[in-house]
Write a structure and sequence with these properties.
single chain, 5 helices, two-stranded antiparallel ribbon, alpha+beta
Length: 218
């Protein structure tokens, strides 16, 4: 199990659960146990705690105060012995996501173990939507719009040369960039977004049109 946990990213929520056949009891050993477990710790329980300490795992069903019938996870065949040997563990970073953890002895099951359930609530950070990069439709400059663009650029640069001595190199660069971009915006504008996936070829779209009777939205 140790080798498996090493392969998991620290950013992921790691949950381990199952029958560990170990009793950690009601000892309080933060951050592994919270002192609300059942019974007394045994040797296998000590080894489990050592493992959890090394892997920074919290045993969630020892952190919440419950009635005893909500703590034991296993009942002996004769019904006289009840122990807490099943656990749900979570990495310490995400411990506060667990709201509760308890057993449901009345659940319909074909086993001598009780159903153990943890309630988790995770708040995920909202990712900011990246803005689509706008691209000038420079292909339009190959035609008559190209001549118009050159004429307007020349006129604006002619006016700019009279203030060259008053501006720093950085200011001149900003002015030049502004002239180039604003003029292009006026003459050709920006490309329209193409929502088609790059793996859909024109031939495929034509076949779809033929199949749908030209109802395909492009």
């Amino acid at each position: 199990m140790t080798n498996t946990l090493k392969k998991i990213s620290k950013r992921d929520i790691t949950v381990i659960m199952g029958d560990f056949n170990a009793k950690v009891g009601n000892v309080n050993i933060p951050p592994v146990t919270g002192g609300e477990g059942l019974g007394k710790i045994n040797e296998r329980g000590e080894r489990l705690i050592d493992f959890c300490m090394e892997q920074e795992i919290c045993l969630t069903n020892t952190w919440f105060k419950q009635h005893q019938r909500r703590l034991y996870t296993w009942t002996s065949p004769d019904g006289n012995t009840k122990n807490q040997i099943d656990y749900i563990g979570i990495n310490r970073k995400w411990k506060t996501c667990i709201n509760n953890c308890k057993t449901y002895p009345g659940a319909d099951r074909d086993t001598d173990h009780n159903l153990l359930i943890a309630t988790m609530k995770v708040r995920l950070a909202r990712q900011k939507r990246t803005e689509m990069l706008k691209r000038l439709d420079v292909e339009e400059l190959n035609g008559s719009k190209g001549y118009t663009y050159e004429t307007k650029i020349a006129n604006r640069f002619e006016a700019l040369k009279y203030v060259i001595e008053e501006k720093t190199p950085n200011e001149l660069w900003e002015e030049t960039k502004k002239v180039l971009i604003t003029t292009a915006e006026e003459i050709v504008g920006y490309k329209k977004r193409d929502w088609r996936k790059p793996w859909i070829t024109e031939e495929t779209l034509n076949l779809i049109d033929k199949k749908t009777g030209g109802q395909t939205k492009r």
